[in-house]
Design brief:
Length: 275
Amino acid sequence: MLKNNYINIEGARVHNLKNIDLKIPRNKLVVITGLSGSGKSSLAFDTIYAEGQRRYMETFSAYVRQFLGNMERPEVDKIDGLSPVIAIEQKTTSKSTRSTVGTITELYDYLRLLYARIGVAYSYKSNQKMISYSDSQIQELIIEEYLNNKISLLAPIIQSRKGHYRELLDSLSRQGFSKVRVDQKIIDLSPGLKLDRYKTHDIELVIDRFIVKNNNEFKKRLEESIKTAMYYGDGTVLIFDLEKEYTRYFSKNLMCPSSGISYPVSYTHLRAHET
């Protein structure tokens, strides 16, 4: 095998070690066994780990090293193939049964941050990539993909919940809105309007309806409509193409553009682990 696949140790003489030579395979689980006092700890901790730590310290500047102190080289003629090392003693200060190598060494914090930044979410319904958008991105996509199309801009208010929602519908009417889409059907807001309280409903507020144009006047109108829809839809906007009768979702959260399934943005606290 290649030389880089081994940690090569020559002439180790720390404590009970008697000028031993050996090769330890890399990227393998290696167990060192022996009787008490046979030199297991001398090899693992006082030779391999000590040399790895010494080499790591040498990467710091002279200014930093003066605060860390000097680490003596272990009694060994040569060690090749040694990577940065971490040592975990058998007796740890942690009392949690859920502790792992990652949590004890604090590497888990960095892995959690890494996964949160590079993770990609997919919808379990459509298998499409979940996407989040800013207001400006939504505006650009609407103009690019729906130019000269007649669309409705909707804000989801209620999703798959039972109730008559009389008070909610009256409140929306008093705020100046005239239409809602209830269970895929556009209806007018009227005094006393209520739904079947025993059925599950989806309610979307109709924010605006227009033919998409690419001019400054329309862009200003679209910008205001998106802000209003984001406010009432809690960060989510629906675009309903009136000609194709197709609905597309846009959200500040991670959302499937076709099914509307939403996941929270992947922050690191969602991957907390008890140490």
